[in-house]
Amino acid sequence: MHKSNPIIPIIAVVLGFTYFCFQAYQPPDPVEGFHLEEFARLPIVDRGRIKPMDTFARVSLMVMNDGFQTFKPDISEKEKAELTTLKNKSARTPEENKTFTSLSEKDKRQPAVRWLLDVMTSRFSDNDIEKQKVFRIENDQLLRLLALQPRPDLRYSIEEFKGKMRELAIARQVANQKDNVNNDPFEKSVLQLVAQLISFFNIASPAEKHKVFRIENDQLLGLLALQPRPGLRYSIEEFRGQMGELEKASKVADQKENAKKDAFDKSVLQLAHHVHSFMEIASLQTPLVIPAGKAEDWKPFMQASLESRNANQADPNTGKTAFKYFDQMLDSYQKNEPLTFNKALIDYRELITKELPAQSEISGFEVFFNHFAPFYHCIVVYLFVFLISCFAWVTAPATLNKTAFWLCILTLLVHTWALGSRMHIQGRPPVTNLYSSAIFIGWGCVLGCLMLEGIYKNGIGNVVGSITGSLTLLIAQHLSAEGDTLEMMQAVLDTNFWLATHVTCVTLGYTATFVAGFLGIVYVIMGIATPTLTPERDKSLTQMIYGVVCFAMLFSFVGTVLGGIWADQSWGRFWGWDPKENGALLIVIWNAIILHARWGGMAKSRGVALLAIAGNMVTGWSWFGTNQLGVGLHAYGFNDQLAWGLTAFWLSQLGLIGVGLIPRQYWLSSRMASKTISIPAKLQPKQA
Amino acid sequence: MSETEPNNNKYNPNKNSQFNFLKLLKPLASLELTVVLFVFSLILVFAGTLAQVDNPIWTAVSDYFRSFYVFIPNQVFARFCQTFRWISPTAQWSGSFPFPGGWTIGGLMLANLLAAHAVRFKFSTKRIGIISIHAGIILLMLGELITGIFAIEGNMTIEQGGVTNYLELKETSGFMGKVNGPELSFSDLSIPKKEKVVVIPNHLLRTGGKISTPLLPFDIEIIKYMNNSSVEEIDPDKKEEIANLANTGDGIRIRANEKNEASGTDKDQKIDLPSAYINLIDKKTGKSVGTYLASIWLSLSSLKPTQSVITEGGTKTEMALRFKRSYKPFSMELIEFKHERYLGTNTPKNFSSKIKLVNENSNENRETLISMNNPLRYDGQTFYQSGFLPNDKGTILQVVRNPGWVMPYLSCFVVSFGMLLHFGMHLNTFLKQRANSNA
């Protein structure tokens, strides 16, 4: 055995700690410019929960944008060219400097909250923009065409000539067919007005230019007259003309039975849904931003705006003032006036902190949590731990094992903190939905494996802990793309006592079954592909698997029975034989099979390992498979990716079991073992 | 073991008879049998889960778990493959194979367990854990047996401000409480304050044909019985493709269409809603009084749940196809039904019913609140908040009488204790061994 070196583990832990600190650090808002981070912290109400603007922005954007919580603003070729020239310029005037900063800002990925502000300020609901008299029309002929009366200032609003848009379009077509030089004054003014209109609409709604809608389906792209491009992300502006087609197609798709919906129908419905939620934000109907003393009385901006116009409407003072500040914020953001924006934000912030101190504090914490994204960084470090512990098999085991162990403990601490933070934000026990079950299972796996490592100190706990930890967190990452992971509970699940006991117990049962299964995988791989499965290791691995299966048995049984008791408490049926209950029962039965097969001598060390791997398959079914079955009739319930993921998982486990069934004499570990002791073995009496 | 026991036999001839008995028990007590039974139960539970895709949950429960044997259709495995898109969603796998049902597997497990303890029974502190675990499991299985045989489930629907004193028994899978579906009732309301009811049970309706009883002035001929149905209003201007079977009563304006049986995973309908076309033939004249549509749908709409049947003799009877009723010595009045939602959404947060409970026999008159996860236990039954009428106009309580309800609680406690003890002792020994080997 190599002597362990204390320096390397310490360095690794310090490096890991620095990494986490670096990720957690949130740079403050720039003094000049919009205080976006501060805006992101404002509490709002959405889907029954008080949450920060930040979470709402991230989730809304992520759902449309296929998992991305940031976006890349649309930057034109011209602006790009300007940026490059400015970059290469050695001396810039202050004016140029300003353009440079704003342009280079535009070239970077932007936070979701900026997208949200862009959408919120597009003010679709606001009919006022059409009433603004901003278009100067001098040409008599054009005025006649648009049926307008000449007036002293010659300024007109869109509302006044909306009815004549068709005529204008025809005139434009005619004018476009000629060279610019040949256009007469009428045609020139037509083209000028059209150009003004286009730019007016673009200024009115920068949000429509953001390419955030992911459209994969070829048929749908065809319907919307879009060309496939890398990234497959499109802006509303690009398919605005085809919106009617989309609506028609979505109506047709909506009327079909769920089972008969094809990929095209599904993507049509999905896009229609995304556009709908975009429009809801743009027309300020969601989220509820205007606070009130009672949580039930929060209002969307839209409603508050209508009420503010109606002087008779009695409105509590808080709401009124809040509306005023919020209106100022939106207005100044739209006009690109950071100073006014920041001032209104400070006023608003003060108001809300005074009225709802607890909520705004939790909101602020949630923003920090979102920014830190601790689970994501845990995946990174767990993978590192995995690499280190794999290396440990090749070189200097003692030092590297220690390094992996301590780094894993550090990551587990962050993981634990993150789990606790979610509980703090939500005020609930750890497992409330599929996403949180993945996080919790990961946490349990790592904790259990580190305990095993603490006892055995053979590096196996490090390998299994880091790989199960990172895999489950990856699954969680994938699940989180569906929406807010801190969603509210269904009425019947709204009980902290049973969530804390039954759900936690059953989830720990899943956890232990997975740990046993992965130990089984380690057994097979070590035995067949490496010479490291010595009789001593064989014995300790078998002990580990057995011990973990005992734990799995305890938690899955108690958890399942507690679930039955909950059901008895809630609707009078201890055991209803429904798919999810049966799934849990299958795990109990499977663990019972492993234990009894071992006690009866039907399965020895290898048998137990292979049975434990099959336990992974059973747990996979209970965890995800039963959901697929139960919700198979819901609109978006069937998740193809999940189905394929589960299929792949089952095949891999079956493969491993198949490999494990290869006769022992072909295993690398037994071939090496027989080589080293081949001569003395002949002299010794044969083992029974 | 096998080497030492014959010797025992030789030297202890007194124990001969007992030994033979144990020897007989031995194969029954084997761990191999335990494992085989576990594997069988695994397959049964799995198939019983898959069967719920196409069948109502209680059909699956009574076919698979509360039965002695079951023919498992291959189609359930096709459903499994379809769930994961391995095969075409329209694929049909014909055929089925016999398999032991829940009673058989459970019974054998119980026998196996008892035999094992009889054969290998040795009381020592070491075995307290394992004995507790198994005792708890036996309790759990007996509990399920008692539930399967004796439990009765029903519903109590109370409108806002209304009073109800009976349960409606819908389909359940219990042995004793077996209710197949709604029954046809004829009530004579001629004597005020007393309702004389004649009930035709569901199984007779299913059998069809002519039903005759001296209690009624007419014979009943079942023209058509539909296990599950939907109803629609008949458009008088439209020419109907199929002639209307009914020629009087509500059936003139409403038509019932046959539907497939409800399945357990259906989102909005979990129970079958039957309808029947029946011809009533006057006993005296031998002439038809009329062909009526009797439907559970009509009874569910509270406007007028019954239809009047008037014979030539002038006797008036109220007819309805309704869920089997079980009248209670107490009544419940709905004072207020509350349906709370999460703010800014339609997602329900909680349902609760404020109930006034009146029992004249015991002079009880009190108010009580039933809400999600907070049932009322009264008169040996438990009342759960289960649903509500459209527009929150009333509450639906699920009512359960289950004499075995306490068993799982006991079992959970006993098994947890056993497992903690057993595995704890293992862990303790193991850690001691490690400490010794490391030292």
Descriptive overview:
The complex is a heterodimer of chains A (688) and B (439). Chain A is 68% helix and 4% strand. By secondary structure, chain A is mainly alpha-helical. In chain A, the strands form five sheets. A two-stranded antiparallel sheet of chain A has the order 1-2. A two-stranded antiparallel sheet of chain A has the order 3-4. In chain A, strands 5-6 form a two-stranded antiparallel ribbon. In chain A, β1 and β2 (49-52) form a beta hairpin. In chain A, α18 (338-355) packs across α19, α20 (374-394) packs antiparallel against α21 (397-426) and α24 (496-529) runs antiparallel to α25 (535-571). The two termini of chain A are 32 Å apart. Chain B contains ten helices and 20 strands. In chain B, the strands form six sheets. Chain B has a four-stranded antiparallel β-sheet, with no helix packed on it. In chain B, strands 4-15-16-17 form a four-stranded antiparallel β-sheet, with no helix packed on it. In chain B, α2 (16-29) crosses α6, α6 runs antiparallel to α7 and α7 (128-150) runs antiparallel to α10. The relative contact order of chain B is 0.12. The interface between A and B is large, with 69 and 69 residues.
Can you tag this structure with a few keywords?
heterodimer, A: 688 residues, mainly alpha, two-stranded antiparallel sheet, two-stranded antiparallel ribbon, 30 helices, 68% helix, 4% strand, disordered C terminus, B: 439 residues, alpha+beta, 4-stranded antiparallel sheet, 10 helices, globular, disordered N terminus
Largest interface in this structure: A-B, 69 and 69 residues
Level of helix content of chain B? 25-40%
Taking pLDDT < 50 over at least 5 consecutive residues as the criterion, the unreliable ranges of chain B are 1-15, 173-177, 264-269
Unreliable runs of chain A: 631-637, 677-688
The mean pLDDT of chain A is: 83
* Biggest sheet, spatial arrangement of strands of chain B: 3-20-19-18
